[in-house]
Design a protein that fits this description.
By secondary structure, the protein is of the alpha/beta class. It has 8 helices and 7 strands; from the N terminus they run H-E-E-H-E-H-E-H-E-H-E-H-E-H-H. It has one domain: Glycerol-3-phosphate (1)-acyltransferase (3-Layer(aba) Sandwich), CATH 3.40.1130.10. Helix content is 39%, strand content 14%.
Length: 228
């Protein structure tokens, strides 16, 4: 990121922080769990358009986001995201975004990803996808589970209005996947197992009303594979 990009990043981050306090009385829990240096993949639930800026602002270090290609078609967002090093994701062609995220992590940066891949309409945690696992194992970087609570009420899916409601961002404990195999060809069973464990760690940070049902988890990850 250029010096100009860093200036844009920290200026907008300061503005978002001020707004998050005024509008949402945002609370940040577990910030001490965020590694202050080195690559780390922050994995959060996703319930609102507000999640990327709020989770990023709650993180006590510079972070980089992954955003769908469609957002880059908006001129102002294209300019802004280009300046702050946002990783572009092409739906159905995500390999380049994965490679970019791996590169960022190897360079000691923090990257935020939403393993569900899209926003939950109900606020309840949805099925995760294994991209986060591939990135973390390939980069040999730790995963940091995180959640945002309340933004689903601040800006519901399909709505452009923002309501002033309390929002909490909570960071869990970082952990590293123990894997000694070929990091360029990760077995499907490893990706499935580690995805299940990651989603369990994310879910454990959520209040009960935002947790998936046992029936859904059994369907997504296999009967008796997911706790709860």
């Amino acid at each position: 990121m250029s010096a100009g990009g860093r200036s844009v990043y920290w200026f907008t981050r300061g503005c978002i922080w001020l707004l998050s306090k005024l509008l949402f009385r945002m609370k940040v829990e577990g910030s001490a769990n965020v590694p202050r240096s080195g690559g780390v993949l922050i994995c959060s639930n996703h319930v609102s358009h507000l999640d990327p800026p709020l989770v990023g602002t709650a993180c006590p270090r510079m972070v980089f986001h992954m955003a769908k290609r469609e957002l880059f078609k908006v001129p102002a967002l294209h300019w802004y995201m280009g300046r702050i090093g946002t990783i572009m994701v092409h739906r159905g062609q995500g390999r380049q975004a994965i490679n970019d995220a791996i590169d960022y992590l190897r360079k000691g940066r923090a990257v935020i990803i939403f393993p569900e891949g899209t926003r939950s309409k109900t606020g309840v945690l949805m099925q995760g996808h294994s991209g986060a696992i591939v990135i973390a194992i390939s980069a040999d970087a730790p995963l940091l589970p995180a959640v945002i609570i309340g933004s689903e009420k601040a800006m519901t899916k399909g709505s452009k209005a923002i309501k002033s409601v309390p929002v909490t961002v909570r960071f869990g404990e970082p952990y590293k996947i123990a894997y000694e195999g070929d990091r360029t060809h990760i077995p499907a069973e490893v990706k499935e197992r580690e995805l299940r464990l990651l989603m369990e760690r994310i879910e454990a940070l959520l209040p009960e009303y935002m947790r998936s049902s046992a029936e859904d988890k059994a369907e997504w990850y296999g009967a008796n594979k997911v706790g709860g």
